[in-house]
Amino acid sequence: MARANDANPNITDRFQLIIDGAEIVNAYSELVDHIEQKKRLEQQARYNAGGDEEAMVYDEDYITAMEYGMPPISGWGLGIERFVQVLTDSDNIKDCVLFPLLRPE
After folding, report:
1. What is the pLDDT of residues 60-96, one digit of tens each?
2. What is the Cα–Cα distance from 33 to 29, expressed in whole angstroms?
3. Which three-class secondary structure state does DSSP give residue 52?
4. Cα–Cα distance, 13 to 3 (Å, whole number)
5. In terms of pTM, does the model score above 0.70?
6. Which among 86, 68, 88 has a CA at the least distance from the CA of 17?
7. Phi and psi dihedrals of 30, rounded to 5?
């Protein structure tokens, strides 16, 4: 869902912060062009229909919402557990989950 770079459409506007081999932050400018997003989702749906379980299914409601117009969007996500893992030098991220008893088995 990252949008293409204005100067070079072969790359996207995104970055990751990696510390000691762990992805801590994932950030990108989100694609808000409904025509381009529709093409991408159609391609993903073909991959999904062909057996790719990681490919997305087509989301008509999302495209309809985008057709009404979306402002430019960008942002980043910080993995708190991953950040704590780096700070505490933990070997396993499971040791850093804040509420492990609330997670389904």
Report:
1. 999 998 898 888 888 888 888 888 888 898 888 888 8
2. 12
3. coil
4. 6
5. no
6. 86
7. -85, 140
Backbone angles phi and psi of 63, in degrees to 5: -65, -40
AA identity, residue 11: I
C-alpha torsion angle, residues 48, 52, 56, 59 (rounded to 10) = 10
Tokens 């950030």 found at: 27
Alpha helices in 1-105 (DSSP H): 34-49, 60-67, 80-88
Q: Residue 25 and residue 16: Cα distance in Å, rounded? A: 5
Tokens 């030098």 sit at which residue? 89
Residue 14, classed as helix, strand or coil, is strand
